[in-house]
Amino acid sequence: MDIAFHIGANCTDDDRLLKSVSKNLPMLAGRGTRVPNPARYRRLLRETIQHLRGEMPEPGTRDVLIDAILDHGETTERLVMGNPAFICTPARICEAGCFHEMASFKARSLQALFPEDRIELFLGIRNPASFVPACWEQTRGRGFDEFMAGLDPRMILWSDVVARLRQAAPGIALTVWCDEDSALLWPELVRAMAGIEADAAIEGGHDLVEEIMRPEGAARLRDYLASHPPASAAQERRIVSAFLDKYARPEAVEIEIDLPGWDAGLMADLTAIYEADLDRIAKMEGVRLLAA
User: Fold this and answer.
1) Could you name the domain of life of the organism this protein comes from (predicted)?
2) What is the dihedral of CA 232, 120, 206, 290, to 10 degrees?
3) Angle value at C-alpha 77, between 71 and 80, nearest 5 degrees
4) How far apart, in whole angstroms, are the C-alpha atoms of residue 166 and residue 172?
């Protein structure tokens, strides 16, 4: 069985991708793909992994989990799941002074639970210049120094997280993209998660772009795409980008950062480090980096 698991990151699409994939349930069911309600598996997987504490599961654990996740008597060839906090909650991204320190443990545990299945992890990443403040805002009053746990923000590298995921579970494929590009990549992400052809007709392919666009712009984009079907994903991205330039709501795309010591110089440094980091990720074996 194929298992597609969207593991976050926190403060990126906030479950929107899974919801967009779920808009295609009838079509996907006909292809042998199931997209169960997250309530069926999130707590179950979390508690199972915590109970194992890194040990190998008992024989038959995988089948018990699948029976609990799917409806009685239901079978599937592809299982699509997601949890933005699978690696850790936003409050723990810098725990022990290491960025996403739990990544290796979680990847190993997932592979141990589904040893015979073909697993692909999906990870949306975000510029630390905005990612760290967004996660800190969700810590509910925790001091920023305590939250950072002594970690220099310039040492935050997504390539380290990706490398640890790959090292811990080399049999797991990994698809990565930048959250900053998500609106342009959304149709490709929906199809990739669903495991369907690049030109397959889908619902929800423009959910995110319509969310950040003024209503009149979203309507005009729908009309334009209907009357001028793009010949390729690249052409569709160019069309969407042009409409975003004209109709994007400023409050939906502009981010204000207000943290002590986080001045323009630091923000520029973090952005440059992030952009260089993407080149490292693109060259990693077993990693597919989707780019707009």
Assistant:
1) Bacteria
2) -50
3) 70
4) 7
In the block, tokens 């990565």 appear at: 176
The residue-averaged pLDDT of 53-79 equals 93
Q: What is the pLDDT of residue 185?
A: 97
Nearest Cα residue to 12 out of 131, 100, 102: 131
pLDDT number for residue 73: 79
Sheet with 173-178, edge to edge strand ranges: 33-34, 78-82, 2-6, 118-125, 173-178, 287-290
CATH top-level class for 2-212+249-290? alpha beta
Element (H, E) at 177: strand 173-178
Six token digits for residue 161? 């997280």
d(CA 6, CA 34): 14
Q: Side chain identity at 20, as an amino acid letter? A: S
Of the candidates 33, 9, 65, 10, the residue with the CA atom closest to the CA atom of residue 190: 33
Distance of CA 279 to the CA centre of its chain: 19
131, 123 Cβ separation under 8 angstroms: no
